[in-house]
Amino acid sequence: MKLKKNIATSEAGFVFNPATGDSFVANPLAADIIGQLKAGHEAAAIQADLLDRYEVSASQLRRDFDDLLTQLAHYHLLDEAA
Amino acid sequence: MPPAARRPLTVALTGLNATDSPGAGVAVARALRESPDYEVRLIGLSYEALEPGIYLRDLFQKTYQLPYPAAGSAALLERLTYIQTQEKLDVIIPNFDAELPLFGRLEPSLRALGIRLLVPTLAQLDARDKLNLSAFGVAHGLPVPATQVVHHLGGLAAAATALGWPLVLKGRWYEAQVVHTLAQAEGAFAQLQARWGLPLLAQRFVAGQELNVAGLADGRGHCLSAVPMRKLTITDKGKAWAGITIEDERLTALAHHFARASQWRGGFELELLRTPAGELFVLEINPRFPAWVYLTAAAGHNQPAALLRLALGEAVEPFGEVAVGKMFVRCAWDLVADYGDFQQIAGLGEL
To answer: The domain B124-129+207-329: what is its CATH number?
Structure first.
């Protein structure tokens, strides 16, 4: 699952979709994940990284991660073809 | 090598009504001041003594009142002939829909006075007119929501049967209301008829996101610039109070398609709607620059400055990529003037 190439992100957590003009504010953890998606990291690698850095169970992380991806897809931020 | 000096040019503009339902004149003026080619001296042309642009004295060196379009082309030519003796205009950019047919008819006379224009032809104006847009869409493959012309109150029921509820009832020139029942439609009919006359238009209601494209075409089928914008804040009159440039090839392609199909000459604006399913519809085509056209300069496509070159018969290459993410936020700003200024423009017709 990849972020669309033209999506602009900032360190402050702003996400801008230039195709629609929509902008969003992500919390720090979501911004971290979006940043990794933008860098081309695979979902499994991102989850492994988060498991290393946070005290969270694998099942809880997977649920929350999937929930974030669902939201990103809903807002047309993910590359459907990838 | 130092940059070439900008050549002096005197340009007159209408549309100084920078109000809550703004004309484009002030935005065009700001864009012209940033022309890379010309050091533009700006002359305002107004219809009302309280058009805000008149009092932007740093922008417009002088403003002249014009006769209302209803006075006809002879009265307009007489007034412009006088203004020409005073100001030696090189180009006029009209920014009101209602005056464009007059300026179009006067183009040869104005050229004889030394004034250049770049306005759509009467046939082009007619083709994209609200009354004809649906047929234009069918003829040229532009997606326009199904529309019926309503000449009398009794026609509403038939339009609703054909289009379904809700539908959008539109005034001949401005305003639209979404109506859900025949009773609502009859009420809206009375209001819109009183303001704008007949006929009205009934259009199938389409829900979605409002998008606009400001464009410039050379009259030979080439769209030289298309800048898509999404409205971020809308006033109760449906006007954009804030907006942002976006990138969407389908919007740009629509602008090119329109310019090619109509052989459009001058500035234009596509008012579009994108449904949640991604369908695009053309709601209206305005035959001049929009009030937000200064954003095109910020996005690297200074359309008014390019129009000047076209009007003067100079070559203009198509612009490159639009700078995406450029925003405008309109500002309510009180201009302060002396009463003497108001008397001067209201009484003597020039300031």
So the answer is: 3.30.470.20
